[in-house]
Known about the structure:
This protein is mostly helical and 433 residues long. The chain contains 19 helices and no strands. α4 packs across α7, α5 runs antiparallel to α17 and α7 packs antiparallel against α17.
Amino acid sequence: MSTPTSATPASEQLPELHRPMHLRYFGLLRGNVRFRRLWLAQVVSEMGDWFYTLAVYDLILKLTGSGQAVSYAIIIQLLPWFFMTPLAGYLADHFSRRRLMILADVIRGFVVLGLLFVRSASDLWVIYALLGVEVMFAAIFEPARNALIPNVTTWEELLPANALSSATWSFALTVGAALGGVITALLGRNTSFVVNSLSFFISAILIQRIAVNETHVAAASAHEVPRSSAAEVLHESIAYFRSNPRVAALVLAKTGLGLAGGYLLLLAVFSDKVFPVAGHGTLVMGLLYASRGAGAGTGPIIGDYLTRGIESRMWKALGSSFLLMALSYFAFALAPNLPLAMLAVFCGHMGGSNVWVVSTTLLQIHTSDRFRGRVFAVDFGLNMLSASASNYAVGVGLDVYKLQARQLAQILSMVLLIPAALWLAAQAWWSRK
Length: 433
């Protein structure tokens, strides 16, 4: 491989990971201006995202009263990631990742304003169409961002950068969901939609100020004939996965993680049907999503502390994190009250977010820069495909088979034991090899 990590083990490559955690994170933001701007763009954009996401789900529930209608919205937010995989990966490996991110931000900033014109259940198709367009450009933005992180950090900064990005996503979810629930209840959904639009434009300005040498563009030109067909690009990508089985396994880890996607719908249903507070389901949804965010922020920090950048520990952490997620969501299904439900969600997303961060870091370490965009596009695409299938199954279970939300939560937690068992078995096999 072309990366320096192919020559030395992770524990030798990343000596800075043995410094105290707070020094790594604050030092990273203070000393790396390029990553700091990328991080600030993430903070602003994701805070706006969570303001508006809860408002959209609440709007659909109020217009239709249907859990399946919400599940369709969630699927529309997830499934385009899979269908955009070939294009998003190709773009991220052949064009400036920074410029792609700016373009995606600007377009999304205008698209979300269309939600201001939704008035009745007959406008449901407008919501779905706007969500679809927004997600198409998000599917371009995120692989480009993940592929860009190694270009704006040193190898010593890579794991802390990913842990900080995950913690930031979690902070944005925690604060954005909590504030979004309150602001939507007090000021209305349109306020949340405007806030999200502004956040995209601010993010674009911050990313525009990042100076980065994107060597993958020249590498792509050197390795591929002009006007390569989609089939040729796809063939090259498949060959890369076949020659790098551990990269393929890491991608499939997020596919297993996507099976938990049905909980996005179940959190909304639990808020409205199981734990409503004075009839305000949006407030409860904000609390459950805030618990999700707090857990997702805590998990990678603890994981970073325990693994210390030692690659063998990072691989082992994936199986145990899957197991924690499955057991925690079984506890969520049985929770008798809101505080215990919040605790279970917190613990479940500690495990899930650690799977995300560790698998992302290992992919960045082991993937050549020339293929990184395509690998992360496949990574996101398969995750969103499995999450879409999970949400669809939960929606059908609610509206067609009339299953209770608690029953579906129990079933889904048992399904999550499958990737946990597979990953633990694979890790045991690799250890013997």
